[in-house]
Amino acid sequence: xxxxxxxxxxxxxxxxxxxxxxxxxxxxxxxxxxxxxxxxxxxxxxxxxxxxxxxxxxxxxxxxxxxxxxxxxxxxxxxxxxxxxxxxxxxxxxxxxxxxxxxxxxxxxxxxxxxxxxxxxxxxxxxxxxxxxxxxxxxxxxxxxxxxxxxxxxxxxxxxxxxxxxxxxxxxxxxxxxxxxxxxxxxxxxxxxxxxxxxxxxxxxxxxxxxxxxxxxxxxxxxxxxxxxxxxxxxxxxxxxxxxxxxxxxxxxxxxxxxxxxxxxxxxxxxxxxxxxxxxxxxxxxxxxxxxxxxxxxxxxxxxxxxxxxxxxxxxxxxxxxxxxxxxxxxxxxxxxxxxxxxxxxxxxxxxxxxxxxxxxxxxxxxxxxxxxxxxxxxxxxxxxxxxxxxxxxxxxxxxxxxxxxxxxxxxxxxxxxxxxxxxxxxxxxxxxxxxxx
Length: 438
Prior knowledge:
This protein is mainly alpha-helical. It contains 16 helices and ten strands. The protein folds into four domains: 163 residues, no CATH class; 48 residues; 32 residues, no CATH class; 129 residues, no CATH class.
């Protein structure tokens, strides 16, 4: 029999913390292995020498085709966004080609992958001795600080290495400004504005000042709520000062509300375009202020949106609207660009005989529209509103329609069928000839 003194046993809390730290070290080492494999994948793709597949328009360079094929392929395989995948690719290649000390520190578990991303991002543009010095200093600093602290130090080191290019780098960074929406739970979402730091700080300062004024005037809301509310009010009701911008523009919201839910007797959720299901109360509030309505017919058994089939050379407004209703977002796998902001693409190229019909139309974001035509990605419509996308490496992905309502309950369908059968059984021969013109 053995006896372990309570004084000699380790605190379970401390043990758990140590295990977390040990796992982080393992994750860092695996991240270094992954970086090498990503670099190897890029090297093997380069050997395949993919070329531009388009038949018209500007021709992409082989390097651009390679990058786009690698990023889109990896994004789908690893279930990342293309933005995050591009960061993975860029960081991996930078580590393998120009940051040996950073890669060594990552392989040893002395820094995290987040540290490596920061170092690789700011190394862009450095060469020769400046790059070597930067790599050595940042690899050492990364063992002492967190990634956010390292970000500041990285910027400082780059300024010391090449102060003359600060303006050029600022202009290059400003060209990446954008906004994007991330859905959240319980009917909420985040709007991110990625823009130059002076403008961001000025916006935040204005929100604080407006909120503080309201608070001083006795508004019961918290400062956090007030800041969010005043910015929302400014964005929805304020006017732009940019010359040439249209004034009086209001945001447009698309909500698909089942008739029974709207009448208060159904339980099926309404669908907010670009977000998903929303609660009946929010749907009722949105529809109460609606300036226009459109009736959409759906198949009661499948929930599929029904549409007529006009055969014009160019897509009609009805065709485009139908495609956007069936696929509220770009149909490239993983893309979340709203259909209203996307191009209307002939899945089977019109130049090769593709018809301009609803069954051959689908929204593709401008970027993914180019990817479809310039790379080896292939798309096929399956006839049931689904599409199959096949990647250059041969992986197949099914894109299912999001613009479908919940099918009608079986009991309702059976009751309707029974009523129709009963009505047909009581119809007389004279009734059948009622509309006969002769």
